[in-house]
Protein backbone atom coordinates (compact mmCIF):
# COMPACT_ATOMS: atom_id res chain seq x y z
CA UNK A 1 0.00 0.00 0.00
CA UNK A 2 1.28 3.49 -0.87
CA UNK A 3 1.67 5.25 2.48
CA UNK A 4 1.80 8.69 0.90
CA UNK A 5 -1.57 8.38 -0.83
CA UNK A 6 -3.50 7.31 2.25
CA UNK A 7 -4.01 10.00 4.90
CA UNK A 8 -5.16 7.42 7.46
CA UNK A 9 -1.66 5.96 7.41
CA UNK A 10 0.00 9.01 8.98
CA UNK A 11 1.21 7.01 11.97
CA UNK A 12 2.84 4.36 9.75
CA UNK A 13 4.42 7.09 7.64
CA UNK A 14 5.75 8.83 10.74
CA UNK A 15 7.10 5.52 12.05
CA UNK A 16 8.90 4.93 8.75
CA UNK A 17 10.39 8.43 8.55
CA UNK A 18 10.80 9.06 12.29
CA UNK A 19 14.62 8.70 12.38
CA UNK A 20 15.01 11.21 9.55
CA UNK A 21 12.47 13.63 11.03
CA UNK A 22 14.12 13.42 14.45
CA UNK A 23 17.52 14.08 12.85
CA UNK A 24 16.10 17.20 11.18
CA UNK A 25 14.53 18.30 14.47
CA UNK A 26 17.86 17.81 16.24
CA UNK A 27 19.56 19.99 13.62
CA UNK A 28 16.86 22.62 14.03
CA UNK A 29 17.12 22.54 17.84
CA UNK A 30 20.92 22.87 17.64
CA UNK A 31 20.25 26.29 16.12
CA UNK A 32 18.21 27.29 19.17
CA UNK A 33 19.53 28.66 22.44
CA UNK A 34 20.94 26.04 24.82
CA UNK A 35 18.21 26.48 27.45
CA UNK A 36 15.34 26.04 25.00
CA UNK A 37 12.44 24.20 26.60
CA UNK A 38 11.67 22.06 23.54
CA UNK A 39 13.75 19.01 22.70
CA UNK A 40 13.90 17.29 19.28
CA UNK A 41 11.48 14.56 20.38
CA UNK A 42 8.94 17.11 21.61
CA UNK A 43 9.34 19.10 18.40
CA UNK A 44 8.70 15.99 16.27
CA UNK A 45 5.72 15.02 18.39
CA UNK A 46 4.18 18.49 18.19
CA UNK A 47 4.74 18.60 14.42
CA UNK A 48 3.08 15.22 14.04
CA UNK A 49 0.10 16.26 16.16
CA UNK A 50 -0.28 19.43 14.13
CA UNK A 51 -0.08 17.51 10.85
CA UNK A 52 -2.44 14.75 11.95
CA UNK A 53 -5.06 17.26 13.08
CA UNK A 54 -5.50 18.40 9.48
CA UNK A 55 -8.48 16.58 7.97
CA UNK A 56 -7.88 14.79 4.69
CA UNK A 57 -4.19 15.66 4.41
CA UNK A 58 -2.58 13.47 1.75
CA UNK A 59 1.15 13.35 1.05
CA UNK A 60 2.36 12.81 -2.49
CA UNK A 61 5.77 11.47 -1.52
CA UNK A 62 8.51 11.60 1.11
CA UNK A 63 9.65 15.09 0.09
CA UNK A 64 6.10 16.42 0.34
CA UNK A 65 5.73 14.90 3.82
CA UNK A 66 9.07 16.39 4.93
CA UNK A 67 8.16 19.78 3.44
CA UNK A 68 4.89 19.87 5.39
CA UNK A 69 6.72 18.69 8.50
CA UNK A 70 9.31 21.46 8.08
CA UNK A 71 6.56 24.05 7.77
CA UNK A 72 4.96 22.71 10.96
CA UNK A 73 8.32 22.93 12.75
CA UNK A 74 8.61 26.59 11.72
CA UNK A 75 5.09 27.31 13.00
CA UNK A 76 5.75 25.53 16.30
CA UNK A 77 9.02 27.38 16.93
CA UNK A 78 7.42 30.73 16.10
CA UNK A 79 4.43 29.99 18.32
CA UNK A 80 6.73 28.87 21.14
CA UNK A 81 8.83 32.03 20.82
CA UNK A 82 5.71 34.24 20.84
CA UNK A 83 4.44 32.50 23.95
CA UNK A 84 7.78 32.94 25.70
CA UNK A 85 7.97 36.60 24.70
CA UNK A 86 4.39 37.19 25.83
CA UNK A 87 5.22 35.60 29.17
CA UNK A 88 8.10 38.03 29.51
CA UNK A 89 5.80 40.90 28.46
CA UNK A 90 7.69 41.43 25.25
CA UNK A 91 11.13 41.27 26.79
CA UNK A 92 14.05 39.34 25.42
CA UNK A 93 14.53 37.70 22.10
CA UNK A 94 14.81 34.00 21.38
CA UNK A 95 18.16 33.45 19.67
CA UNK A 96 18.43 31.09 16.75
CA UNK A 97 21.55 30.54 14.72
CA UNK A 98 20.97 30.56 11.00
CA UNK A 99 23.66 28.14 9.92
CA UNK A 100 23.56 26.27 6.69
CA UNK A 101 25.48 23.14 7.51
CA UNK A 102 24.38 21.47 4.29
CA UNK A 103 26.33 23.62 1.86
CA UNK A 104 28.13 26.90 1.42
CA UNK A 105 26.35 29.30 3.75
CA UNK A 106 29.45 30.36 5.67
CA UNK A 107 28.00 33.23 7.68
CA UNK A 108 26.63 32.42 11.09
CA UNK A 109 24.02 34.94 12.10
CA UNK A 110 22.50 35.05 15.57
CA UNK A 111 18.88 36.08 15.41
CA UNK A 112 15.55 35.23 16.89
CA UNK A 113 12.98 32.89 15.37
CA UNK A 114 10.36 35.65 15.36
CA UNK A 115 12.63 37.84 13.26
CA UNK A 116 13.23 34.97 10.85
CA UNK A 117 9.48 34.42 10.55
CA UNK A 118 8.88 38.15 10.00
CA UNK A 119 11.57 38.26 7.32
CA UNK A 120 10.18 35.20 5.55
CA UNK A 121 6.73 36.81 5.53
CA UNK A 122 8.22 39.97 4.01
CA UNK A 123 10.28 37.98 1.53
CA UNK A 124 7.16 36.09 0.46
CA UNK A 125 5.68 39.33 -0.89
CA UNK A 126 8.82 39.77 -3.02
CA UNK A 127 9.41 36.18 -4.10
CA UNK A 128 7.30 33.28 -2.74
CA UNK A 129 9.57 30.70 -4.39
CA UNK A 130 12.57 31.97 -2.41
CA UNK A 131 10.60 31.45 0.80
CA UNK A 132 9.69 27.90 -0.22
CA UNK A 133 13.35 27.18 -0.97
CA UNK A 134 14.41 28.55 2.44
CA UNK A 135 11.70 26.56 4.24
CA UNK A 136 12.62 23.34 2.47
CA UNK A 137 16.36 23.81 3.12
CA UNK A 138 16.28 25.31 6.59
CA UNK A 139 13.29 23.59 8.18
CA UNK A 140 13.08 20.36 6.16
CA UNK A 141 16.79 19.79 5.47
CA UNK A 142 16.28 19.08 1.78
CA UNK A 143 19.01 19.20 -0.83
CA UNK A 144 18.80 21.39 -3.93
CA UNK A 145 17.89 18.34 -5.99
CA UNK A 146 15.04 17.39 -3.67
CA UNK A 147 13.76 20.98 -3.67
CA UNK A 148 13.90 21.00 -7.45
CA UNK A 149 11.71 17.87 -7.50
CA UNK A 150 9.25 19.14 -4.89
CA UNK A 151 8.82 22.59 -6.43
CA UNK A 152 9.07 21.28 -10.00
CA UNK A 153 11.64 23.90 -10.98
CA UNK A 154 15.11 23.53 -12.43
CA UNK A 155 18.12 22.88 -10.25
CA UNK A 156 19.72 26.11 -11.46
CA UNK A 157 16.60 28.04 -10.41
CA UNK A 158 16.74 26.47 -6.94
CA UNK A 159 20.41 27.44 -6.58
CA UNK A 160 19.72 30.98 -7.77
CA UNK A 161 16.70 31.40 -5.47
CA UNK A 162 18.68 30.02 -2.50
CA UNK A 163 21.59 32.38 -3.13
CA UNK A 164 19.28 35.38 -3.48
CA UNK A 165 17.28 34.46 -0.37
CA UNK A 166 20.42 33.98 1.74
CA UNK A 167 21.78 37.35 0.64
CA UNK A 168 18.48 39.11 1.30
CA UNK A 169 18.02 37.50 4.73
CA UNK A 170 21.61 38.24 5.73
CA UNK A 171 21.24 41.89 4.68
CA UNK A 172 17.92 42.29 6.51
CA UNK A 173 19.19 40.60 9.68
CA UNK A 174 22.21 42.84 9.87
CA UNK A 175 20.51 46.20 9.44
Question: Could you describe the 3D structure shown?
Answer:
The protein contains 7 helices and 2 strands. The protein has one domain. It has a two-stranded antiparallel ribbon. The model is unreliable at 1-7 and 96-111 (pLDDT under 50). With 175 residues, it is mainly α. Residues 8-174 form the RNA polymerase sigma-70 ECF-like HTH domain.
Key traits:
WH-like_DNA-bd_sf; RNA_pol_sigma70_ECF-like; globular; 175 residues; mainly alpha
| Uncertain spans | 1-7, 96-111
Cα(first) to Cα(last) distance is 51 Å
Strand order of the largest sheet: 1-2
User: In one word, what is the shape?
Assistant: globular
Summarize the structure.
This protein has 175 residues and is mainly alpha-helical.
Question: How do the helices and strands line up, and which of them pair or pack?
Answer:
Elements: H1 10-30, H2 40-52, H3 62-87, E1 95-98, E2 109-112, H4 113-126, H5 128-139, H6 144-151, H7 155-173
Helix pairs in contact: 1-2, 2-3, 3-5, 4-5, 4-7, 5-7, 6-7
Amino acid sequence: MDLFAQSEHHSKLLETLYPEIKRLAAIQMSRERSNHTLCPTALVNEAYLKMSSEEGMIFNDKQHFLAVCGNCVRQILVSHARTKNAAKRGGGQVPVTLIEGIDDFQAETDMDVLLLDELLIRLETLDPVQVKVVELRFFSGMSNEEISDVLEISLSTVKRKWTMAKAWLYKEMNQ
